[in-house]
Specification:
The chain is of the alpha/beta class. The protein folds into two domains: 325 residues, TIM Barrel; 51 residues, no CATH class. The chain is 47% helix and 9% strand. It is built from 19 helices and nine strands. An eight-stranded parallel barrel has the order 1-2-3-4-5-6-7-8, surrounded by six helices. Strand 1, helix 5 and strand 2 form a beta-alpha-beta unit. Helix 17 packs parallel to helix 19. The protein is globular. Bound molecules: iron/sulfur cluster. Iron/sulfur cluster (SF4) binds next to loops.
């Protein structure tokens, strides 16, 4: 199953091209003519190349940086509207045979208890998540062919989709597992997953080797070419990401955009999402040992990714503080996790620390929904694209043309209504109702749908 020798070199990430890109960015960081022409191109909302984006990231002219941030916000609003999609991670198992230096699940960690959830425990976890109001999950587990084989994951996906607790229903299961073979990706596609997510961690191959000294994940090419295998197997929604703070962030930024460009060129579909995790403390892991990046650099990275790849969904997790999340929501983030627990089995019971990273935003889902409403966003539990087959190229066409925001705004309101009816606290419900009323003026179809939800109809496919 884990044939780590079966890959071809991931030549689409070229070390020399990244170095050239960084040189070009350094040379042009104060060149107003070049920066203005890149900004003008970016205003067309068709994206810009990794070289152009690297110049914007490097730009040190404060008035141009203000333009870059304003443009990122504008693109975000025009393509994604005000909605923010909410999801939660669900950790199935922390068994892992790899030795990633930044992750407490590494095989040498003999202190952390190892847990793999039974199907019964998964049912309890999902019921607890449904009790909060979640509709969309990201399944997470370490790489271990003996303890976490693909069949375990497939059974778990079926279990998650099968739990119907009260009005609850998980409608989209995204999966974040180690790089694997095409056959396994085909099985995941047939199991009905939403997005296949795999973080590159670092695109710098030498750094990658030292951070992953042992285990199947130590093969840089195999890991880097995983999305190609997933897409060849028919998974058309894939999620990229790097662990910012592990290597020179400018290098990672260029590598990430080159990866997105490669997928678009090779498959006609770029990444469905880009995540921007930053390294955080966890049991036995001290983030400061790896360098790290400031909040200001982090915000600039988000803005420049949004400008470079306007169509992609962007994700920030509860690793980040409330203040930081608020800032990057404005600059490009379209999806956030909320009410998360990163312990294996942590939603139904919280007996031991098996957390992959410590979270900063510890608020409940209800508090997060209310916070988003207060910030004038529309919290969305919508999964309609996936359920209606608007994935891959179909989704990209809508997203690139800016028409996704029309559909999503409507769907977001309906799912917010559903959340308000079934799960919200009294004050969140009131705020959600006020928001929905404000949006209602010319949307007769929506009025009808909302009445149906109020009358208990949960068969509307969102
Ligand atoms: S990052 Fe993933 S592969 Fe590496 S030790 Fe952690 S769980 Fe295992």
């Amino acid at each position: 199953m884990y044939n780590v020798n079966s890959n071809v070199p991931a030549e689409f990430i070229s070390h020399s091209e990244i170095l050239e890109t960084l040189k070009y960015a350094e040379q042009n960081k104060g060149n107003i003519f070049v920066i203005d022409s890149i900004i003008a191109k970016a205003r067309l909302k068709k994206g810009i190349s990794h070289r152009e984006a690297a110049v914007l990231l490097e730009c040190e002219i404060s008035e141009k940086n203000a333009e870059i941030f304003a443009l990122a916000s504008k693109i975000k609003r025009e393509i994604y509207g005000d909605r923010i999609v909410i999801f939660a991670p669900l950790y199935l198992s922390n068994y892992c045979v790899n030795s990633c230096l930044y992750c407490p699940y590494h095989v040498q960690n003999k202190i952390m208890p190892r847990i793999r959830l039974s199907q019964e425990q998964i049912r309890s976890e999902v019921a607890a998540l449904q009790e909060m109001g979640h509709k969309r999950l990201a399944l997470e587990m370490g790489e271990d062919p003996v303890n976490n084989p693909i069949d375990y994951l497939l059974e778990s996906i079926e279990t998650v989709y099968g739990v119907k607790h009260k009005n609850g229903d998980i409608r989209r299961v995204n999966v974040n597992i180690a790089a694997t073979e095409e056959d396994d990706y085909r099985k995941l596609r047939n199991a009905g997953i939403g997005t296949y997510i795999l973080f590159q961690e670092t695109y710098h191959s030498e750094s990658y080797k030292s951070l992953h000294p042992k285990g199947p994940k130590s093969n840089y090419d195999y890991h880097t070419s995983a999305m190609d295998r997933a897409m060849r197997a028919g998974i058309d929604d894939v999620g990229l990401g790097v662990l910012f703070g592990l290597e020179l962030y400018r290098y990672e930024f260029a590598g990430l955009l080159m990866h997105a460009e490669h997928l678009e060129a090779a498959f006609g579909v770029g990444p469905h999402t880009i995540s921007v995790p930053r390294i955080k403390d966890a049991g036995g892991i001290n983030a400061r040992d790896f360098g790290g990046i400031s909040d200001e650099v982090f915000a600039k990275l988000v803005a420049c990714i949004r400008i470079a790849v306007p169509y992609t969904g962007m994700i920030v997790s509860t690793r980040e503080s409330v203040a930081c999340r608020e800032r990057v929501l404005e600059l490009g983030i379209s999806q956030i996790s909320g009410g998360s627990n990163t312990n294996v089995g942590g939603y139904a019971s919280n007996e031991s620390d098996t957390s992959q990273f410590y979270i900063d935003d510890t608020r409940t889902l209800d508090e997060i929904v209310d916070w988003l409403i207060g910030l004038k966003y529309v919290p969305s539990f919508c999964t309609a694209c996936y359920r209606e087959g608007r994935t891959g190229e179909r989704f990209m066409k809508l997203s690139k043309s800016g028409r996704i925001s029309d559909r999503c705004s409507l769907n977001a309101l309906i799912t917010l209504k559903e959340y308000a009816e079934d799960y919200a606290s009294r004050s969140t419900k009131r705020h959600a109702e006020e928001l929905i009323q404000r949006e209602l003026s010319d949307k007769a179809v929506l009025v009808d749908y909302l009445k149906r939800v109020e009358n208990g109809d949960r068969d509307i496919r969102f």
